[in-house]
Amino acid sequence: MSLYITGTKDFSLSKELENKLNKAFLLICNEEEISNSSVNLKILSNTDIQELNKKYRKINNPTNVLSFTNEDISKSITGDLGDIAISYEYLQKESYQQNKKFDDHFIHMLIHAVYHILGFDHKNDEMAKLMESKEIKILKKLNINNPY
Fold it and tell me: On the CB side of 18, how many CA atoms lie within 13 Å of its CA?
């Protein structure tokens, strides 16, 4: 199980945050009984994520995180579950506004996006509660408080 992280030259992850992101992904894989899988994480600026948001969701604004499930026929061979884009600028502002630690918020957004890739959503109350409970369980294992 691997989390492949790439990003913009304007932002670099601390080794500590990188390790926690990898641990979070491994915890999800263990919890959901997923093996031999990977996710690609790209860290972007607000400008770059706004372009993706406009192209794929028809929303011309930046956002905190986008997830893209791999629908390719090679998925069963490669184990590539999908791609995640996170705006470090958006998360910096959002974590400040919500009085959250940046690293904790970043980890939560990764967990949230991975669960989207795995087919969970928050379009109705029942699914939202299930998704949130899964996120909270993983966050707790990382000593991160319930963000909800």
Answer: 12
Domains, the chain, in order of start with CATH, read 2-141 (3.40.390.30)
Alpha-carbon distance 145 to 5, whole Å? 24
Residues 6 or more apart in contact with residue 86 via CB below 8 angstroms = 41, 42, 43, 44, 49, 64, 65, 106, 109, 110, 113
In a 10 Å sphere around its CB, with 0-12 CB exposed, 13-18 middle and 19+ buried, how is residue 86 labelled? buried
Global pTM? 0.95
- E strand or H helix at 87: strand 80-87
- What is the reported pLDDT for 123? 84
Q: Give tens-digit pLDDT for 52-111.
A: 999 999 999 999 999 999 988 888 888 999 999 999 999 999 999 999 999 999 999 999
The secondary structure of the chain in percent helix, strand, coil, rounded to multiples of 5, reads: 50, 20, 30
The structure tokens listed for 32 are 């959901």
Which residues lie below 8 Å from residue 132, measured CB to CB, with a gap of 6+? 122, 148
* DSSP secondary structure code for residue 124 in this structure: S
| Predicted pLDDT of residue 1 | 79
